[in-house]
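debug: dumping io for the single-chain case to check the tokenizer round-trip. Nothing else runs in this session.
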Amino acid sequence: MEYCVVIVVSLAILIFCESWNMVDQALIFSMENEKIMPLSVILSDIPENVRYAGGTVYMFPIIMLFVMFRETLEESMEAYKL
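debug: decoded output
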């Protein structure tokens, strides 16, 4: 039972990471309104020096999730011998 919490937290983190990087659906919904385009699409249209700063900001939530829940992810992998 103790592994259930670890597994659910790990699954939630991985699902969030997958949906955070999803661009196709966001493009479909924002085709008519350029104000709500995903950040990953907007980064391709800005100057290079700003693009790197924007990419860092874009990855910050995922990196923070990994840092905060690293031990939980490791425990879930050890539980299933991954």
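debug: round-trip ok. Helices lie at 2-20, 24-29, 39-42, 48-68, 70-79.
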